[in-house]
Amino acid sequence: MLSDLRLRLRALFRRGTMERELDDELRFHLEQEAAKHERAGMAPREAMRQARIALGGVERTKEDAREARGTSWLDVVAHDLRYALRGLRRTPGFTAAVVVTLALGIGANTAMFGIADRLMFRAPDYLRDAGRVHRVYLGVTVRGRERVDGSFEYTRYRDLARWTTAFDAAAAFAPRDLAVGTGEAARERDVDAVSATFFDFFDARPVLGRFFGPAEDSVPGGAAVVVLSWAFWKTWYGGRADVLGSPLQIGPQVYTVIGVAPEGFVGVGDEEPPVAFLPITTYAAAFRRNDRDPAGWYSNYNWGWLRMLVRRRPGVNAATADADLSHAYQQSYAAELAMSPGMTPATIARPRAMTGPVREAMGPQGGRDAATVLWVGGVALIVLLIACANVANLLLARALRRRRETAVRLALGVSRGRLLAQLLTESIVLAGLGGLAGLFVAWSGGAILRSLFLPSWAPRTALADPRTVAFAAVAALGVGVLTGLAPALHAGRGDLTEMLKAGAREGHYQRSRTRTVLLLVQAALSVVLLVGAGLFVRSLEHVRSLRLGYDVDPVLYVERNSRGMPSTAAQRIANGQELLELARTLPGVERASLGLTVPFWDTWGENLFVTGIDSVRRLGSFTLQGASPDYFATVGTRILRGRGITAEDRADAPRVVVVSESMAQRLWPGQDALGKCIRIEADTMPCTTVVGIAEDIKQNSLTDDSGLHYYLPIAQFHPESAVLFVRTAGSSAPAAEMVRRNLQRAMPGISYVIVTPMSSILAPQERPWRFGADMFLALGVLALVLAAIGLYSVIAYHVAQRTHELGVRVALGAGTGTVLRLVVGEGLRFAAAGILIGGAIAFAAGRWVRPLLFGVSPRDPLVFGGVTAALLAVAAAASAIPALRAARVDPTVALRVE
User: Fold this and answer.
1) Same-domain check for residues 812 and 741
2) Full-prediction pTM beyond 0.90?
């Protein structure tokens, strides 16, 4: 066996040497045989002839020897490749058209695969036993609808970890933005607070030092130690080996460096890569140090902030794990209910827990980004199918033009199987060239998509990811086979005698039926994409015109960060007032006011008690905002009835509240909410009187927000935690840096301000519709262009084939208008058929795309009508050029055409 393998490898890599040895061996045998005949009395010439006869033919013997090596198929492949490359080199225009078409289709799909793979399918680096590791989600029923959440309390995490038996490991983690460093070098950076068990989920070993253990991650407060990420160690410390033991200020606390994580270790990697890993208990204790109940974070259930990983025991299936997890959650819910009797009973809330994918984008909270990526990936696949149909059409037209050549080759003895292999080789070569060009398309155009959807640490080029390159190669191979089937199968059909006798016109309609079907496929799929583009564009228009309950473009959000500087509540209140007064004096600033939270970033809620309602919590989730005088005018929220917060609402004044319109209707249906009483935090608290009703705002979701929001005077509710809102005369983004520099002057010591335009906060909420509209539109236009090219090629081919017929028509008196109507009408009939088929598909698919739309029906007649008009116009334009060519045909020339 080894000898045989050695022989085959030698035949593969030392072919020239073996050919020379074969020639020498055959020459030796011929000479020996001829010498034997000469000794028998034959003349030398006759002796050599008899030797050749005895050998059976030199070339045949060589072929038999090559077959015995087992590498002859390589010669066949090499021959087909050379033949295909020569043919493509002779037709550069055709080759370029096919390669560009396939490059667009393969490139779009490669770019989308790279995004979807990183965002949803690929397990985080270093993750051990990825098939058994899950993220935990909790679900409760609110007003008959289940709400699923992946963030919960530390107390809940401990309950689930100790009351389940289906898992051999559990860990908590919480990504956070914290100020890292001191002085001018301090910056807001991503930091992961993790439990000590978090590192056990990964096959990662620190390159320096160690990870922290359970003793350093315990309540009431863990040890102030930190593990650095490899990238941060390299950039911040220059990769120094003596970093261990160094102090590092993170947030309000100084930590000691005890280790450096390996390169590429970013934890779960949902967001930006963390620069450091802190004990989760140390972080929580430092963060809640100044609260009224500093032990509340690990003893009650009112701060949902962390996420949880679990690993199933070997042999435990997902259904069993979910049942075990749900049972533990029900026990935990009962414990919470004992602490807060006003909660919804378990029989109504129906608490349940479930395991989900580690990648958040694939879980129940994947959101619109993940769904949009999948849909756009499907759209890119449709574009690839359109490109394949277009290329198959071009290859089929080329095969039809080479019918006589094919017939001659068959007549000379070439087998149909050999011919099919050669045609498939040609299409695969074209697809390979298209795949290489597609990688360039994915590298250039795909960078924009990756910057929108992938974290900054992910590779920014398709060429840097072997999985993406492998996908492009597989896609190219599949496309090559798919596009080569039509011409290959066509070449293998038909009677050889008829093919040799056939003229250029004979039987062309029958043999072009496949081209017609491919054209209809292109037109129908183009309709589907254009309808999707129209629906997403309309959705984006509705999102942008949506009234949020506040203004976005002219408003800045200003947050203070103390960098751990100790300060009293009175000092923080005074600093907030100083910032407020300074902001009002800045050029271009119209108004400024204080608040507590910012939509889509921060939510605050308190227990509410209303006379006549046994549990306000059962009516929904109520969120609050602290507000200083002029708040509503600053952010643009309208007061519908009553009044807003005024300067009279001081700390020692009677407690007042402004409620949203939806909150007023929910708590006091059919009544006037003005003058009603709400007790906040406890039912023993003084009455807080409703003095105003404001319009509803979008606090947490653009599409599904209850609008249950209320406003308390900032002077009466946590004034030490105030943030600042600034309204500028125009767009706030250009003024952000000027405002930051001026307000920074009022910040004490090393503390600082962060200024963010509200438009930046809202941009991620609009992103799915904006991305969907842009991508559907771009891919839809690309599909329309490809369909127009396909229609033009079919019509032009038909016109060329009908030159004789058209000449007869013109000779018999047909005018230019008649010929134009004949040819353009054919193109419009193709388009109309494609519109009917594609429209039916888009109409039927509407129910699946409905969840991604906003304010528009998936069967919007305006969109369908616009797509119909667009495709008919393109079809008319694509048919016009061959129609004009047909109208100008010279009858005397056309009648002689064969």
Assistant:
1) no
2) no
